[in-house]
């Protein structure tokens, strides 16, 4: 009985960490929209303060840097996830970008099934089907619009994000080390675009600093701590607050509203994920 109570407390602790992480991540939409730079430059320059914060964090907790094939693979996935999310946020609405990235739980379930032979439950299959239907709704609004490429970028970001949630379960992986390397990739990829930017104001750099410190490094620190106590699937579905907060903040501060069908799609994707999460908790 005591062990059960301890496990519940640890899971609750992990869930709170993941929720804080999701709140920090949700700042991405409004901050990215407000910075008048190319997505490559934004992702590259925000990676610099993010690298510094994670490096200091690792030093403070005595976490040594590791490098191997698994760590490198995780770094590549995290770089692609963040890069294409920033691209998607610039090329489609923030609501579309975050909701389509939120296909990540579906990809996570499929990867665990196909690659690791962990057969999903009927509930997991239902969640995947519902997510696919929700995704289709987004394209009803965007079939002839210029934001269509952004939708595909967001979905690809969701695919790589699924791997990020799995990093702590992979053999020889190291979450924080992968983060550091991915920030180096981001900086190198963004520097050429940065030198092509003509707008350089204090307010822009403050927004970039907020992106790097809070929305990027801070979010990953809490996600890492959360993944120490809850499973990747539980963590990914607990993050449902992110696709809700992100477009709300953009709508309030940027005036951008997603289309009717996209709103329906978002409700289906988020609702399916929440249903999955609540039913899993019951068991």
Key words describing this protein structure:
283 residues; mainly alpha; 13 helices; 0% strand
Overview of the structural elements:
By secondary structure, the chain is an all-alpha fold. It has helices at residues 2-25, 28-34, 39-61, 69-91, 94-101, 104-114, 122-142, 148-166, 175-194, 202-227, 232-238, 241-254, 260-282. The two termini are 17 Å apart. The relative contact order is 0.23.
Task: Walk me through the topology.
Layout: H1 2-25, H2 28-34, H3 39-61, H4 69-91, H5 94-101, H6 104-114, H7 122-142, H8 148-166, H9 175-194, H10 202-227, H11 232-238, H12 241-254, H13 260-282
Helix pairs in contact: 1-10, 1-11, 1-12, 2-10, 2-12, 3-4, 3-9, 3-10, 4-5, 4-8, 4-9, 5-8, 5-12, 5-13, 6-7, 6-8, 6-11, 7-13
User: Which descriptor suits the 3D outline?
Assistant: globular
Question: What is the CA–CA distance across the termini?
Answer: 17 Å
CA radius of gyration is 18 Å
If helices are DSSP runs of H or I spanning 4 or more residues, what is the number of helices?
A: 13
What structural class should be given to the helix and strand makeup?
mainly alpha
Poorly predicted segments: none
Number of strands: 0
Mean pLDDT: 85
| Strand coverage percent | under 5%
Written as H for each helix and E for each strand, in order along the chain, the element string is HHHHHHHHHHHHH
Fraction of residues in helix: over 70%
Largest sheet geometry: none
């Amino acid at each position: 009985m005591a062990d059960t109570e301890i496990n519940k407390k640890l899971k609750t602790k992990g869930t709170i960490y993941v929720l804080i992480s999701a709140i920090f991540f949700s700042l991405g939409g409004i901050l990215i929209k407000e910075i008048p730079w190319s997505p490559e430059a934004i992702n590259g320059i925000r990676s610099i303060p993010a690298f510094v914060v994670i490096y200091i964090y690792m030093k403070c907790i005595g976490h040594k840097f590791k490098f191997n094939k698994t760590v490198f693979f995780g770094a590549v996935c995290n770089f692609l996830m963040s890069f294409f999310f920033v691209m998607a946020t610039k090329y489609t609405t923030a609501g579309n970008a975050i909701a389509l990235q939120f296909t990540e739980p579906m990809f996570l379930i499929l990867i665990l099934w196909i690659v690791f032979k962990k057969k999903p439950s009927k509930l997991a299959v239902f969640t995947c089907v519902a997510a696919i239907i929700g995704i289709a709704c987004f394209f009803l609004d965007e079939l002839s619009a210029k934001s269509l490429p952004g939708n595909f970028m967001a979905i690809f970001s969701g695919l790589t994000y699924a791997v990020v949630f799995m990093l702590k379960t992979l053999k020889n992986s190291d979450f924080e080390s992968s983060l550091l390397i991915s920030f180096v990739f981001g900086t190198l990829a963004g520097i050429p675009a940065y030198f092509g930017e003509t707008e350089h104001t204090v307010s822009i750099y403050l927004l970039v600093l907020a992106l790097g410190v809070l929305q990027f490094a801070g979010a990953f620190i809490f996600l890492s701590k959360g993944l120490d106590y809850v499973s990747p699937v539980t963590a990914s579905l607990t993050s449902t607050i992110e696709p809700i907060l992100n477009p709300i903040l953009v709508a309030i501060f940027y005036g951008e509203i997603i289309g009717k069908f996209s709103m329906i799609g978002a409700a289906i994707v988020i609702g399916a994920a929440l249903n999955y999460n609540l039913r899993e908790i019951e068991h």
